[in-house]
Every structure is written in C-alpha cells, then in structure tokens.
TrEMBL record:
InterPro entries: IolE/XylAMocC-like (IPR050312), Xyl_isomerase-like_sf (IPR036237), Xyl_isomerase-like_TIM-brl (IPR013022). The lineage of its organism: Bacteria, Bacillati, Bacillota, Bacilli, Bacillales. Residues 20-305 form the Xylose isomerase-like TIM barrel domain. This is Sugar phosphate isomerase/epimerase. One of its GO terms (molecular function) is isomerase activity. Pfam families: AP_endonuc_2 (PF01261).
Length: 320
C-alpha cells in the first residue's frame, strides 16, 4: 500500500508547494481536488481539461517529485434539486473524469448525491427512518427515478474514459452505508465502487472492519480520518447531531486525526483487513480535525500511518 494525502488541506499553498509538503512527510501519492465541495485551489478540472499544456504541467509536477496521483476528487451533489447547482456539480464530475483519463488516473471520487423529496423540491431531503409512511414513498422515488438513472448514465460515461467512480458514503446522501453503496453498484454499474472513509461510519455505530469485509473488491480508494465519540453527549442525544462542527464540547462526535479517536490496534486491524480483501492502493490522509492545526494533524497522521504501512508490508499483521 501507499501513503497519500488529500492535498486540499494545503489549500493555502500553491500546487507545487502542496506536492512538496506531501513528499516531505513521506507520502508516495496525492489525491487532488478538482471541483465540487473540495474546491479548485490547486486544479480546476473544467478549466484545464482541454488545455494540454496545463495537463502536462500537472503530470510533470507530480512525477518530478516521485509521486503518483491516487485519485481526483470532485465531491458534489449532481442530484441536487437546485438545478443550477446540480448542473455545476455534474459538469465538474464529467470534466474530472476526462481529466483523469488524460492524466492516466483510474479513479474519481465523489458523493452519490441527494435529491429532494419530489420534483418540486427546493433543497435536498435525506430520509432517515421508514415512518411516517410517506418517507418510503420519497425514498423509492429518489432511488428509482433520480439516482439510478443518473448513475447508469455516468457509469457508461466513465467506462468510455477508462475511469472508475469511488463513491464516498456519507450521511445526508443516498449512499451513506454498506448496503446503499452496494445497491448503487449493483443497479447502476460495476465500475461504481467506494471511497472507504471509516470516520463517516464510526458515528453511525457501524464497524468499519466488518464493512471492509462486506465491500471487498468494490473498495477503490481509502481515506484515513478518525472520529471521536463523546460518550456523555451521545448517551444524552444519540448520534443524529446537527450542531455545528465547531461546537466540539457539545457534539456527540467530532472528526479527529487518525489515532485520536481509535487506537493503533484498530488502525492495524483496518490496514490488514484491507489487504486481506485485496486492496493494495493508497491510504489518503484527510484532515478535518477541529482541535489540531493542519500541520500538526497531518504530521501526526503521516508519522502514525507510515509506521503502520511499513509494518504491514513487512508481514506484521494485526494479530501478530
């Protein structure tokens, strides 16, 4: 496996400086934001996809540092009932797929998207329970009339360009857990897989190790980000927490740097289980820790994971 980093965390640096930061920390690959929620601080897929000189500059900047690109990321909501926003995210996705082909990158990461409750919606609407019964009617419409048709078309588009889609399961979107990820893959195309991020699973009460086993070869990319569950706040309010992420003291959970939500035994087990199901790609550090600075969180994560990957590669499995 390779250690990588989602370089949007170095958004205040130039592209070249961000690559240097990744290299200096011992990373072997980078994940690049190209639109959507990750922004375009380093690369704007729509702006450069038809500029061969710009594409060459990206390729050369990465290669000259001995790095590779693990994925291009354009997380967005192409199913948004706001048609203007949906179109912008759709265009960013398709431009990213085309850019990935030109760069020789085989994986594009995004979200499944989330429709509204009907054709007349103004905002996305995420169903979280089966009652009142109208919720199931909404959910059936969202999947069968919006999501599956859209992703069938995108699956064909990606196949034409030799690119796989890694959907990041996240609450608030149709794909948020194991069964919804596998449903989209089964019904829309087997080149649609998963960007596996355990941090989004912890706070839903899921076991990421078991999820890896169930997802198997549908895992196309992996994010390294941890979650700390606050026992008292969760005991009082559960995990459906809508408080701002900055309200750390009162939230049921917060995202943390790897090792600060779950100990090294978990992370050793995770890396080894990924290997057991055949994953040999990049583990990409994503920093969303509200307590640590970017530099501190990234450095701690890189040091932690570098040692872990080296040990695992040498055959020191989690149970050893």
């Amino acid at each position: 496996m390779k250690l990588g980093v989602f370089i949007v965390l170095f958004g205040q640096q130039s592209f070249e400086e961000a690559l240097d930061s990744a290299k200096a920390a011992g990373c072997q690959s980078v994940e690049i934001g190209t639109g959507g929620y990750p922004g375009t601080a380093h690369v704007d897929a729509k702006a450069v996809v038809n500029d061969e000189a710009a594409v060459k500059r990206i390729r050369d900047a990465v290669a000259s540092r001995g790095l590779t690109i693990s994925a291009l990321s354009c997380h967005g909501n192409p199913l948004n009932p706001n048609k203007e926003q949906a179109q912008a995210d759709h265009e960013a996705f398709q431009a990213t797929v085309q850019l990935a082909e030109k760069l020789g990158v085989d994986t594009v990461i995004t979200f499944s998207g989330q429709p509204g409750e009907s054709e007349n919606s103004k905002y996305p609407s995420w169903v979280t329970c089966p009652w009142p019964p109208e919720f199931l009617t909404v959910l059936e419409w969202q999947w069968n009339e919006v999501a599956i048709p859209y992703w069938k078309e995108q699956s064909a588009f990606c196949r034409k360009h030799g690119v796989k889609v890694a959907i990041e399961a996240h609450p608030g979107f149709l794909v948020y857990n194991t069964e919804t990820a596998l449903r989209l893959r089964r019904e829309a195309g087997d080149n649609i897989g998963v960007n596996f991020d355990p941090s989004h699973l912890f706070w839903q009460g899921m076991d990421p190790i078991e999820c890896v086993k169930a997802l198997g070869d549908s895992i196309y990319h992996v994010h390294a980000k941890d979650t700390k569950i606050d026992a008292r706040n969760t005991a009082l309010n559960g995990v459906l927490d809508t408080k701002h992420y900055g309200d750390i003291l009162n939230r049921s959970f917060v995202f943390r740097t790897v090792g600060y939500g779950h100990d090294d035994e978990f992370w050793k087990h995770l890396v080894s289980t990924l290997r057991l199901v055949g994953y040999d790609g990049t583990i990409s550090i994503e920093h969303e820790d509200g307590i640590m600075s970017v530099n501190e969180g990234f450095t701690k994560a890189a040091n932690f994971l570098n040692g872990l990957i080296l040990k695992e590669s040498a055959g020191e499995m989690w149970w050893a």
